[in-house]
Amino acid sequence: MSKFVFLIPLLPLIGFLINGLGRNFLSKTLSGMIGSGVLVASFVLSILVFREVSAAGFSTQIINLFDFIKVAGLNIPFAFQIDQLSALFLLIITGIGSLIHIYSTAYMHEESSPHFARYFAYLNLFVFSMLLLVMGANFIVMFIGWEGVGLCSYLLIGYWFGNNNYNNAAKKAFVMNRIGDLGFLLAIFWMLSQFGSITYADVFAKASTAPVTVLTGIAILLFIGAMGKSAQIPLFTWLPDAMAGPTPVSALIHAATMVTAGIYMIARSNAIYSLAPVAQHLVAIVGLATALLAATIAIKQNDIKKVLAYSTVSQLGLMFLALGVGAYTSGVFHVMTHAFFKALLFLGAGSVIHAMHHEQDILKMGGLRSKLPITHITFLIGCIAIAGLPPFAGFFSKDEILAAAHDMNPIYYVLGVITSLMTAFYMFRLYFLTFSGSFRGTEEQALHVHESPFSMTFPLLILAILSIAGGWIGIPAVFAENAHWLSNFLQPVVPERHVHHHIPHNMELMLMGVVVALVLVMIVIAAKKFAKSDLGEPNEPTGFGKILANKWYVDELYDFIVVKPVNFLASFFSRVVDNSIIDGLVNGIGRGVQFSARQMRLLQSGQIGSYVLIMTVSIILFFIFQLLWKA
Amino acid sequence: MPIIPVNYYIFLAVALFAIGIVGVLTRRNAIIIFMCIELMLNAVNILLVAFSKMHHVAAYALDKTTTVGTEAQLFVFFIMVVAAAEVTVGLAIIVMLYRNIHSVDINFLNRLKH
Amino acid sequence: MFAAFDNFPALLIWLPLAGGLLSFFIKSDKGAKANAMIFSLLSLGVMLGALAYTESKHFMLNQVSYVWLPGIGSSFGLILDGLTRILALLTVIIFPIVFLLVPSGRYHHANRFYGLMLLTQCGLLGVFMATDALVFYLFWELALIPVYFLSSTWGGEKRIRATFKFFIYTFLGSLFLLLGILYMYLKTGTGSFGLVAFYNVQLSELEQFVLFGLFFIAFAIKMPIFPFHTWQPEAYEEAPTPVTMVLSGIMVKMGLFGVLRWLLPMFPLAVKAFNTPIIIVIVAGMVYASFIAIYQDSIKRLIAYSSIAHIGLMAAGAFTLKDSAIHGMTLQMFSHGINIVALWIVADLVERQTGVTRISQLGGIAKKAPTLTIFLVIAAFANIALPLTNAFVGELMIFNGLFQFKPWIAALAGLSIILSAVYTLNMVKNVFYGETVAATAGFSDINKVQVLALGILTALIFVVGVYPDPFFKLIHETVGLIVNKYVTI
């Protein structure tokens, strides 16, 4: 197996090179086929790898490609690690990646062929980086992928570079990620100096030998990295802005894969986190706070992609909650189910946007149910899945997280439930506003609304099936003992939590029932409110609603406490300190020399008498000086 | 024959020198300044001769064949020669100046400044 | 004296010198350019040949010692060792690329222009290879003087003022250097200017402190590091772009090289005593320069301040005395040279077509010139040390060394990582993305020659970034000698 594992990331890289270098020569069909073809090939290879990994008696494999840095006491090989966790992520990335590539061939068809090829080049490069991220056998390779996906995210958000708002969004995403990356880097250095190695195997084996404070420090710094990449408080504001990119990009990068890199990282480093309870609590609290905050904002957004973006932030928060309470498997489980239904929702939204000719405001949609039948039914499945109704995928993973949160702290549980209720509400608000009621767009749009081509609906259908059935690999013990296939599968990499369920099964069933009932209530409320054919005049939100509609003014706050001071310091340093003080000093020395030269020149009056006088006085002074010196 | 003490020569020389300096500093006529410079030179000459004689007498008392101290009188001749050369050139310059600007007042002669 | 022409250091000195002098006698512009290309490519060939003979058994091929001034104990000594090879390689790669991109007819009296450039190359190579303090000083000045004439003859509007400041400032530094060298010479006892003799001088602590100060100021001005940096933005802005490339790509490395070759081995006690405050000042200066870069509206000044920040990181790395950091900064000297020259080329191409260097007056070039934009984006991301580009390897190792030295200093220096992303992406966004504006409406993409030049640099960016191992092998031994000196103290 190890012979061809390197092909999995190499194929997308080759696709990137072909599309990137040949963008002026390739036809659209060809570049679409190359772009998608390499991914499908990678997917097939990933399945083979997965089969091998899931076979009995498999042990973790390390594949050394070459020495990246081997000097000065550092030994950083460019190596891949194949184990259960990376195999699972390989499947998710290449699988969903393939679907989204296929979808994109239709979605991006309006672009001219060089730009079309550029799009696929970026997308392939992204998959390459993401695969490096999950396949790396040490933190440096992970970091290479980590920054690589950030780069691709930047390039794809700013894909339509003619629009400066998009470019600003791209820049914001990159810079916020960089802030996180600094934390990651510092964690890497700390691990290097503490453990003398950066390879997973060494670090995790030696983790228990390090003092708890060091582990806590490393864990928190790693988490700062995760905050940036996975859009957690305080570094979450880039993700909604990142919706400037093409919709398939939002589905792949900003919902299914890249933003879950932080969860992968922490799940991967569970050996460190389990030994650092303070860091774990921080992860849980930040995750929960993000989940709540983003959910409240999502309720008041009117842009179809923005709602989904805040929903993603919120779901990521839930995943961090899972990691924070030690339920690593549940976190990874939710990554997987979330990848299915969120990719589905984004692609569905893309289909809607495509049909509506780039209209994204849900207040101007409505009644699309009959016009877009496949999109409608798959979108509905996605909404049910994210709302968490059984037996859809979201139910199982979310329930597991909530149960784990309940074990740790009932307050976490209550807040988690509130978040999922809000999720149900805003998702169905979105659904009803888009698909029910009467059409609120222009007549022009009404004429042209049409179902998307098969290459777009096909991925929707596949993802819809996965959104229904994807959760069945993690049946909780309440329903059937030992049916949690995923947790058994991940056992070697992510050990089972040591905390056992405190609550009896009937109690757990009752809680589950109550939550499901409440979710249904939420859906009904949303239906009552938004499924009408006449919404009335959209009124300006007031009071609390206004705060939510303005996203708690977080962007304004950051502008005030970060951007403005940075700009002020930049101009202060440049104009005052550098120009006036330092350069002033340098120029001042020069000017001082010139000035004294001008003063000295005045002595040269040309008056012979004065020269003689100066001479005489000087001689006399000299004599006096001599006399005194001798004395 | 009683020897005139050397102090008298020194006082004379200092007086002449001071007159010379004051003259150079205060007078504006180039010719007078010139004469004052000569005065200073000659004040130095007197000193040289006086010290030379004193020095030689002291050495002669010990050794009748010595020539110690006579070198200074040689310098006097040098100074006189140089002074003569100086006068030649200096007066020529002053004459040329007078021809050009019709004045020998040194306060008009500040062209060195430029 | 002419006995040893058949070895690499000698050829590397004489070729550019001969080419430079020859250039003054060539009348036609084309001929002068061809002459410059030939001699710079010959140097490149010699250097590539030298890389095939790096084992210690080929020692005689890699060092020269002509009898020069035996009366005062100075011999014309040159050597190619690990540290030198990588910088000489950088020099001989940059010069042909610079020559390649000079459009014909851009500079009047082209023969003098190319001649002075080749003399500069000779001076730079001499500085890197010298094993004798007097020879080192000679080349140090030889590299400076042609640059003075180049900038003041072919520079921008305010060239006289900027060049004067640059010259006086760096010359002041040189005088400190000369003072230090003379004192060291007197202390050798045997009256020798040789590198080894200088290394072996026994100095009291006070003497080390004073001499350290003299050498440090000279090198700090040359690099330049905060707060000696104010000559740089003006000089970069006013000098003709080929000269700016040489200045920022290679000449600033003279200071860093001086630290590694002269300062660290000669004054261990002083380095140990002063390195913490020096690193703190340098790192604060890095962050400071990064802030200033955000504010700049001129592409050239932005690159200049960015360079100050990057050079600061390398200097800080050298003073940590950590194995990892010194390896990293040595490689980074090479990488930074490649990256910044690529950035200058792009800035120059933009200025040549639009006549504008103000960021606020540009925009939308990506629509008109996609190829140029691709190269720019690669260079820009290499400048902010994205993984798999060359700067990542070096900066990773420098940061690792800084972290070993003091974790909080690494964190502070890390701020510049974030800020570098801010200003670089601002520049990319405002100049290349967005809609076209008046100045860029008629922009056309780059030609084959320019693609070739940028392509070579880009290839180097990725080669070093993906597989830095051969480069580390090249420098490992020499860097090890410097670091080991401190292990024993």
Summarize the structure.
The complex is a heterotrimer of chains A (631), B (114) and C (489). By secondary structure, chain A is mainly alpha-helical.
What features would you describe in this structure?
Chain A has 631 residues and is mostly helical. Chain A contains 26 helices and 2 strands. Chain A has helices spanning 2-5, 7-21, 28-54, 84-107, 113-135, 139-157, 164-195, 200-206, 212-229, 238-241, 247-256, 261-268, 270-273, 277-299, 304-324, 328-355, 373-387, 393-408, 410-435, 443-448, 454-469, 485-490, 505-530, 543-549, 554-601, 608-630, and strands spanning 61-71, 74-82. Chain A has a two-stranded antiparallel ribbon. In chain A, β1 and β2 (74-82) form a beta hairpin. Chain A is globular. The model of chain A has no long low-confidence stretch (mean pLDDT 88). With 114 residues, chain B is mainly alpha-helical. In chain C, strands 1-2 form a two-stranded antiparallel sheet. The longest helix of chain C is centred in the last third of the chain and has 32 residues, at 323-354. Chain C is globular. The mean pLDDT of chain C is 89. Classes of the chains: A mainly alpha (631), B mainly alpha (114), C mainly alpha (489). Chains A and C meet through β1, α6, α7 and α25 of A and α6, α11, α13, α16 and α17 of C.
